[in-house]
Fold:
Amino acid sequence: GQNIDQPTEMTATEGAIVQINCTYQTSGFNGLFWYQQHAGEAPTFLSYNVLDGLEEKGRFSSFLSRSKGYSYLLLKELQMKDSASYLCAVRSYNTDKLIFGTGTRLQVFP
Amino acid sequence: DTAVSQTPKYLVTQMGNDKSIKCEQNLGHDTMYWYKQDSKKFLKIMFSYNNKELIINETVPNRFSPKSPDKAHLNLHINSLELGDSAVYFCASSQGAQGVYEQYFGPGTRLTVT
Structure:
């Protein structure tokens, strides 16, 4: 089976940097996605990692270590609009399904 | 202009009723999905269709029946609604069923069963 763990809630200050961790257990790993979901809205795609290393996209970066079953999403220069839930999702070769973690609710304070 | 659209946005109904949610995507994608997000915000796959064929069918009560009349549409019909069916239902689509293809989500349908 698959198991994904993320912290439930995090808080940070505007302008700061925050790292949201995700650990997973899966057979036949075939990629890890990060999605952002604002309250009452649909999830939107942020990043995709399938190889080890760091993927950078503007203020957001995502890191993957397949041997450790570990990923993080790094948000720099936090803005108030970054207050949202961040969902880690893993796909396996065996099922092709995206299995989502329960999400991390980030609150950014002025 | 909307990529993935769902109707209705809100649905309030009584136990025992039958209801449908419609989904359409104009992205030209081959694969469409239905997800359920419960009150704890846990997003769980229910069904997936690729080119109108069912490819993922999770352990979902058979009161839920998806129908894909064509590649651009995936509807969800729910019979004999129960209180536990109350949730937000998201439709999504992707270019393919595997690999790097990200999923684009619709705005969601908030179903409340009373």
Notes: The interface with chain B takes residues 30-31, 33, 37, 41-45, 48, 50, 85, 87, 91, 95-100, 102-103, 105 of chain A (CB under 8 Å). Chain A is about 0% helix and 60% strand.
